[in-house]
Every structure is written in structure tokens, then in C-alpha cells.
Amino acid sequence: TQKKQQPFLNKKPHATTKPDNKSAGQQAAVFGGMVFVSLVLVPALRQIDNAALHGLTILF
User: Fold this and answer.
1) C-alpha–C-alpha distance, residues 56 and 37, integer Å
2) Which own/partner contact pairs does 1-9 have at CB distance under 8 Å and 24+ positions apart?
3) I need a labelling partner for 45 at 20 to 30 A (CA). Which of 16, 20, 26, 34 fits?
4) What percent of the residues of the chain are helix, what percent strand, and what percent coil, each to the nearest 5?
5) For 5-10, which contacts have Cβ atoms below 8 Å and span 24 or more sequence positions?
6) Is 1 strand, coil or helix?
7) What pLDDT tens digit does each residue of the chain (60 aa) get?
8) Terminal C-alpha separation, the chain
9) Is 52 helix (H, G, I), strand (E, B) or coil?
């Protein structure tokens, strides 16, 4: 079992480093997207909601 585990462990770092890098990049991209949404899209949506509310109050 030890001889079988060693090549398996040797293959593991090569197999795990790439998904770890991808997952870290995805987490960074998701975090950056959340920050971007919170900083840019949320105020824009609030302005759109305010404009829509003003438009509705004018129409009705």
C-alpha cells in the first residue's frame, strides 16, 4: 500500500495545484465581482429605482 500511495501522492500535488489556482482565481473574481456590484451596480440600481419611482409618481 505504501508503494501505491507514493505515486498517488506525487500525482496529487500536480492535480490539486491547478484546481486550487483556478478556485483561488474564481474566488478572487467572485469577490471582485461582489465589490464591483456593491460599489457600482447597487447605487446605479438605486438611482434607477428612484427614477422609476419618480416616473411612476408623475404618471400616476
Assistant:
1) 26
2) none
3) 26
4) 95, 0, 5
5) none
6) coil
7) 555 555 555 555 555 555 566 788 888 889 988 888 788 878 888 888 888 888 877 766
8) 78
9) helix
Residue-level pLDDT at 52: 85
Hey, what's the cell of 7? 505515486
Name residue 27's amino acid.
Q
What are the Cα distances from residue 23, in Å, to 28, 34, 47? Answer: 8, 16, 34
All three cell numbers of 25: 482565481
Grid cell at residue 11: 500525482
Residue with cell 482565481: 25
Predicted local distance difference test score (pLDDT) of residue 23: 84
Cell triple for 27: 474566488
